Amino acid sequence: MWRIFSFRPLWATLAGGKIWRWFALNIPMDLMTGGMFTSDIDIIAKVQDYPRSQEWLYKTWEVKVSLLCKDGTARSLKAGKTERTVTQLKAYREFGSPEVSLLDCYICETGFASQNPFPPTCLHATLREKIEILRRERFGYQLLPFEHDRNVHGECEFATYASPRNPLQKTFNLVPAVSVRPEQPFSRLVDRLNDFFENLGRRPRKPFCQIAFCRDCRRLQLIDAKTDACCPDCESDLVLQ
Q1: What are the residue boundaries of the structural domains of the chain, listed by start?
Q2: Model confidence at 201, in pLDDT bands (50, 70, 90)?
Q3: Fold of 2-175
Q4: DSSP character for 166?
Q5: Is there a cis peptide before residue 28, judged by omega within 30 degrees of 0?
Q6: pTM of the model
């Protein structure tokens, strides 16, 4: 997930063409909401469909990561664990999240794109199973494949895959999420995130910042994931957390 948010063309596409105010990563459900829900929400986005609407909307994702090798095979596919994943998505919905999606991220080995189509044959059976179940349960389903390598200067760079229908869309949107009104305690949580984002006195002067939660100092932080992998207060490594 930190790889995604270190490269703007990957995470910006999650807004689905809408204006975004902020993204938040790894946010505990019990932050300012009580202790009934003890898991985390992987990604929360605050977006707006301007000019058609000035209402702010909230989207949430549970993130799963798999590896695609350049020979077309896959690792860490979580095969047979779809029902467990659906249980996690249902926890988001019970928490009051108005729009819940599964984001399958595929980290591709260098050379995969030049030798394989996306999605490769090894994913077809898994994708069919997930599409059927997630559509039935009214959850969204997106794929985000990307490959990273080093350029001639030794710097890390990314290669993305464009959706066949829209070259600017880096996610493959297989099932649309059904949106409803947000409910408690999710509404209290995003109120807390909004208050933190809008009233932070020392907001970094950077154009694209994300809200993150440091588990060591138990505080919300506003960071640039591209350059700031450490907590500004306690200097703990947020990636390792």
Answers
A1: 2-175
A2: low
A3: Trna Endonuclease; Chain: A, domain 1 (3.40.1350)
A4: B
A5: no
A6: 0.90
